[in-house]
């Protein structure tokens, strides 16, 4: 009968051991008769044998919390000595045995959490010693037999979570020893308890809990409840207690009477169709009350100032009514308050600063009112807040940064207000933030990069504001993001590719000023999971978008440069005009060229110059890399970019491209790429110096790492040696010419500009050297043209 025995309870049930020593068996001391079966929570499975009726001395049966099934044997009715029957939390079916009425001494009948069906036998009313009748969480039907009113010793009556119907028999509430009365949640069928609560309930003076939740009881609430001085909990949620009384007066009269219940802890009258003025007498209920809910009614008027008297309240819910007026400052006196729920009313005025006194507050819900003014900074004192709901009001001003110091905040709803200013950088401090709703305000500025620190964020709604700029790269850290809406703003730039790497359920980028190619990966593969309408400069994307193809841009050199000590790690590509295609990625700097000391050809305050080779065309270039750790380098970089963009000069080195990007370490990287000055003649360079110094009326302005024009010849590259076949009778002349040139270089390298040769004199001296060399060596222009190969000067 009991095949399931995971703990081997019945291994001791054999003839080698006296049955009084079997596990779970209790016997009387005198006659060694079985008086108790205590086998609860043993994992037993099977059915209950009818032979249990043969144990006529049984007083206690406790088989609770197992997996017994089948029906309760009628033979239990033979156990006339039985005092306690506990079969709770099993899978018993069928009806309650009617012959349980033979168990006249039974005091406890606990059959909850089974699958029992049928009606409650009226015969149970003859069990005059019954103290606990607990049959909740079954499938019982029908009405409560009036005969149960004969259970004069009944203290606990629990019939909740069944399918019972009808009225409460008035005889039942005459039971003077009744302490716990629960008929809640009898809604599993179309039938529910109806009618008024009998006024005779006031005679059950020992009642400490009444639960009639989710039935169809009607009003009025009996004033006799004020006689229940031991009453601690009254749960009347979701009935029709506001129907049947004198409209507008039933609550006032009830609160006047219930104020006599000095031990009251919880009062739930939500969703009962109460109408009329919220009475001031609500503030007169017991100060021991911790829960007061009147939400979902039709109450109007203002919240009484006396509400501050209820100093032990932990939950105050007055939402979904028609309350007006302002939130009283006295709310700040309820220091124990954990939940303040006032949403969906017509409450006006400002949020009182005193709300900051509620240091235990965890949930603040004021949405759907007409509250105005600013958000009080004192909310920063409520360090236990995990939910702030202030949406759909008329709040103005900026979002106080103090809110972003709340360590436990998970929900922040500020949507549909008139908030201005920027989203504070401190938003990144909310490491537990899961939902942020700031849509439909007048917030401006850029989306703060610190938002990427909110790594548990799942819902981010920012639409309908004035945000500008690009989507910050830091948002790629939001690995748990599911919904992102930044529509109806002034955002610009490219749609970041990393958005396709996040696991969105929906992404809305519509009605901004995004441009460029739409990504094709991730969320962008599912047309129903994202929106980009209203961005007229977008192109590409999946075919179903029917966007124009992205234009093919001329290729610009893409280069990767080796940093010293980085073990061949590459920088991110730097692009002129930020336009490049993957097909051009083969154009990178040849190795081992790169940012190593071997390729360093000059240094200044803000930058260093390196030589490199572009694979495309074998072009040698000079790369000027800024030291961004030097203060002012970034600003000077912008100035130099502006200068080279606007200045044209026959002797200025041509700029190929500029670069502003990040390296693989995530650090800023800025550089300028110039033509390498290795094939120009010294005289041509000197002519440029002379022009700058003597012929041009425009002075040269300082730029990043600027060196005075007289020092342009100080950077000498000894590596570039052009093999040249020496001709006879030229060695001595060449040596003299080189010495003369080097003397000019030394003179031009003097520390003070006043001690250097005049640029025009330099030019004249070089012409003389050339003339002498040609007249002696007879090499013509060919020989002179090779001089830069030995003393190559670079800008």
Automatic annotation (TrEMBL):
Its localization reads:
Cell membrane
Q: What class of enzyme is it?
A: transferase
EC number in record:
2.7.11.1
Per the record, the GO terms for biological process are: defense response; response to other organism
Q: Name one Pfam family in it.
A: LRR_14
Q: Which residues bind ATP?
A: 624
Can the keyword Ribosomal protein be found in this entry's annotation? no
Residue ranges annotated for the Protein kinase domain, each copy included:
595-795
Record keywords, A-Z = ATP-binding, Cell membrane, Glycoprotein, Kinase, Leucine-rich repeat, Membrane, Nucleotide-binding, Repeat, Serine/threonine-protein kinase, Signal, Transferase, Transmembrane, Transmembrane helix
**Domain of life of the native organism:** Eukaryota
- Work out whether the entry's keyword set contains Nuclease: no
**GO cellular component terms, A-Z:** plasma membrane
Q: What is this protein called?
A: non-specific serine/threonine protein kinase
Q: Tell me the organism.
A: Actinidia rufa
């Amino acid at each position: 009968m009991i095949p399931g025995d995971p703990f081997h309870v019945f291994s001791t049930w054999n003839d080698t051991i006296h049955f009084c020593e079997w596990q779970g068996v209790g016997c009387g001391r005198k006659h060694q008769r079985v008086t108790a079966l205590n086998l609860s929570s043993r994992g037993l499975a099977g059915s209950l044998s009818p032979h249990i009726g043969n144990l006529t001395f049984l007083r206690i049966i406790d088989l609770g919390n197992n997996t017994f099934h089948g029906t309760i044997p009628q033979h239990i009715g033979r156990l006339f000595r039985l005092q306690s029957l506990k079969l709770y939390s099993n899978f018993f079916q069928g009806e309650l045995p009617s012959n349980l009425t033979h168990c006249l001494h039974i005091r406890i009948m606990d059959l909850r959490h089974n699958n029992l069906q049928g009606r409650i036998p009226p015969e149970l009313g003859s069990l005059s010693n019954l103290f606990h009748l607990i049959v909740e969480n079954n499938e019982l039907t029908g009405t409560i037999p009036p005969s149960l009113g004969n259970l004069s010793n009944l203290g606990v009556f629990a019939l909740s979570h069944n399918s019972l119907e009808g009225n409460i028999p008035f005889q039942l509430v005459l039971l003077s020893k009744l302490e716990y009365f629960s008929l809640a949640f009898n809604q599993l069928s179309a039938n529910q308890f109806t009618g008024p609560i009998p006024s005779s309930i006031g005679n059950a003076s020992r009642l400490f809990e009444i639960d009639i939740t989710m039935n169809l009881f009607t009003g009025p609430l009996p004033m006799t409840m004020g006689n229940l001085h031991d009453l601690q909990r009254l749960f009347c949620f979701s009935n029709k207690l506001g129907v049947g009384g004198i409209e507008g007066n039933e609550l006032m009269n009830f609160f006047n009477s219930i104020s006599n219940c000095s031990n009251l802890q919880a009062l739930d009258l939500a969703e009962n169709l109460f109408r009329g003025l919220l009475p001031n007498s609500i503030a007169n209920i017991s100060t021991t009350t911790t829960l007061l809910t009147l939400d979902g009614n039709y109450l109007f008027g203002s919240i009484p100032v006396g509400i501050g008297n209820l100093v032990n309240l932990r939950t105050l819910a007055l939402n979904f009514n028609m309350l007006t007026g302002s939130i009283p400052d006295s709310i700040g006196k309820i220091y124990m308050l954990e939940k303040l729920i006032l949403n969906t009313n017509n409450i006006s005025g400002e949020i009182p600063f005193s709300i900051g006194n509620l240091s235990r507050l965890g949930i603040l819900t004021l949405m759907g009112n007409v509250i105005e003014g600013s958000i009080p900074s004192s909310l920063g004192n409520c360090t236990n807040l995990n939910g702030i709901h202030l949406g759909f009001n008329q709040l103005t001003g900026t979002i106080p940064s103090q809110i972003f110091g709340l360590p436990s905040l998970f929900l922040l709803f500020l949507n549909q207000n008139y908030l201005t200013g920027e989203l504070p950088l401190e938003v990144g401090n909310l490491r537990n933030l899961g939902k942020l709703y700031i849509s439909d305000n007048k917030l401006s500025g850029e989306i703060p990069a610190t938002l990427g620190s909110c790594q548990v964020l799942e819902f981010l709604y920012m639409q309908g504001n004035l945000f500008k700029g690009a989507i910050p790269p830091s948002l790629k850290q939001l690995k748990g993001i599911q919904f992102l809406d930044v529509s109806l703003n002034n955002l610009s730039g490219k749609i970041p590719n990393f958005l396709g790497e996040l696991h969105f359920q929906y992404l809305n980028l519509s009605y901004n000023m995004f441009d460029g190619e739409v990504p094709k990966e991730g969320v962008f593969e599912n047309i129903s999971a994202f929106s980009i309408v209203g961005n007229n400069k977008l192109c590409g994307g999946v075919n179903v978008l029917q966007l124009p193809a992205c234009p093919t841009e001329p290729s610009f050199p893409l280069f990767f440069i080796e940093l010293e000590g980085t073990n061949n790690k590459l920088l991110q590509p730097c692009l002129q005009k930020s336009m490049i295609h993957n097909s051009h990625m083969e154009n990178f700097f040849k190795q081992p060229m790169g940012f190593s000391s071997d390729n360093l050809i000059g240094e200044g305050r803000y930058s260093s110059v390196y030589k490199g080779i572009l694979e495309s065309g074998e072009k040698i270039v000079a790369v000027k890399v800024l030291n961004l750790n030097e203060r002012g380098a970034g600003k000077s970089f912008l100035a130099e970019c502006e200068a080279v963009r606007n200045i044209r000069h026959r002797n200025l080195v041509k700029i190929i491209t500029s670069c502003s990007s990040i390296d693989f370490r995530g650090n800023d990287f800025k550089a300028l790429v110039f033509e390498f000055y290795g094939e120009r003649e010294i005289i041509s360079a000197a002519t440029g110096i002379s022009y700058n110094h003597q012929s041009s009326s425009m002075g040269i302005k300082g730029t990043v790492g600027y060196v005075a024009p007289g020092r342009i010849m100080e950077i000498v590259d000894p590596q570039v040696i052009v093999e040249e076949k020496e001709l006879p009778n030229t060695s001595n002349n060449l040596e003299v010419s080189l010495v003369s040139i080097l003397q000019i270089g030394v003179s031009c390298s003097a520390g003070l500009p006043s001690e250097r040769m005049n640029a025009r004199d330099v030019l004249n001296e070089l012409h003389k050297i050339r003339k002498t060399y040609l007249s002696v060596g007879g090499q013509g222009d060919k020989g002179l043209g090779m001089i830069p190969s030995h003393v190559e000067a670079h800008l």
